[in-house]
Write a structure and sequence with these properties.
The protein is of the alpha/beta class. The protein has two domains: 85 residues, 3-Layer(aba) Sandwich (Rossmann fold), CATH 3.40.50.10860; 125 residues, Rossmann fold (3-Layer(aba) Sandwich). Helices cover 41% and strands 16% of the residues. α2 crosses α10. The chain starts with a strand and ends with a helix. Bound molecules: 5,10-Methenyltetrahydrofolate. 5,10-Methenyltetrahydrofolate (GUE) binds next to α2, β4 and α10. Its EC number is 1.5.1.5, 3.5.4.9.
Length: 283
């Protein structure tokens, strides 16, 4: 078998077209996203400019707020407070990782949940479990949209999530559970990773380790979702799955790049538009 390639770019594009219509229906309200970027980490700058370009293409107002690496936590928190109260801003994203002297939890909790388009605030994290109006984290929610778009039914399927970060692994399991999958979490301390992943109908590889998942780790016909954003020895972007060997055995697989990444940004736009709709009571 050779797997179907799940084209994240194409799915992202089709979702962005739908978002254009929703923006047009906002009757003059322009969705606004504020991105706070601290320091001058090259990778962060690249991601942030991708986010800004995506906003621009859709007619979302984006405001970049740059602060020096040495910024104090209280200055950052004041900036967040101003954005919380700014009625032109519907989404606030503080680019992670933060410098070591700033407490990530305090920063995340300073953003009002209604503008937390990353879905990292404890209120949004909690509502993912209990229900209620919330934002879901962009990467796992984007993966759910990809699975839906591909017509992959999750009911009763065994999904194995490899990785337990707050940003991807943990919310991924919750979202899969909501869609009635049976969920197993694996991580760096899992005793026999292969024993678990071999059982999976769907493997989500989100551990941040290049080639962690090979053909030997999956069963014939499994769906492989690769969240990895690693660099190989030549500096080339690569995922957590050994793409070529997995492709030969899986029924569907996401490439890196062009898989989950474009969906992450699209879901950020999606959450920003959703927020503008909620604030303007269109929804
Ligand atoms: N508060 C916050 N929210 C985030 O959502 C957030 C963050 N901080 N910090 C950094 C990570 C990383 N991230 C990516 C988004 C899109 C691609 C993406 O579109 N990747 C392209 C390729 C990009 C390339 O070529 O370098 C792809 O996979 O095809 C990658 C990585 C969001 N992050």
């Amino acid at each position: 078998m050779s797997a179907e390639i799940i084209d994240g770019k194409k799915i992202a594009q089709s979702m962005r077209e739908q978002l254009k219509e929703r923006i047009a229906n906002l009757q003059g309200v322009t969705p606004g996203l504020a991105v706070v970027l601290i320091g001058d980490n090259q990778a962060s700058q690249t991601y942030v400019s991708m986010k800004q370009k995506a906003c621009e293409n859709l007619g979302i107002y984006s405001r970049l707020i740059r602060m020096p690496e040495s910024v104090s936590e209280s200055d950052l928190l004041s900036t967040i407070n101003e954005l919380n109260e700014d009625s032109t801003i519907h989404g606030i994203l503080v680019q992670l990782p933060l410098p070591a002297h700033i407490d990530e939890t305090s920063v995340i909790e300073a953003i009002i949940p209604a503008k937390d388009v990353d879905g990292f605030h404890p209120i949004n994290v909690g509502r993912l479990q209990t229900g209620g109006e919330a934002f879901y984290p962009c990467t796992p929610n984007g993966i759910m949209k990809m699975l839906e778009y591909q017509g992959i039914d999750l009911t009763g399927k065994h999904a194995v999530v490899v990785g337990r970060s707050n940003i991807v692994g943990k919310p991924m399991g919750q979202l899969l559970l909501k869609e009635s999958a049976t969920v197993t979490y694996c991580h760096s301390k899992t005793a026999d990773l292969k024993a678990h992943t071999k059982q999976a109908d769907i493997v989500v590889a989100a551990a941040g380790i290049h080639n962690l998942i090979t053909a030997e780790h999956i069963k014939e016909g499994a769906v492989v979702i690769d969240v990895g954003m690693n660099r190989d020895s030549e500096g080339k972007l690569c995922g957590d799955a050994d793409y070529d060997s997995c492709k030969a055995k899986a029924s569907a697989i996401t490439p890196v790049p062009g898989g989950v990444g474009p969906m992450t940004i699209t879901m950020l736009l999606f959450n920003t538009v959703e927020s503008a709709e909620r604030f303007s009571k269109v929804k």
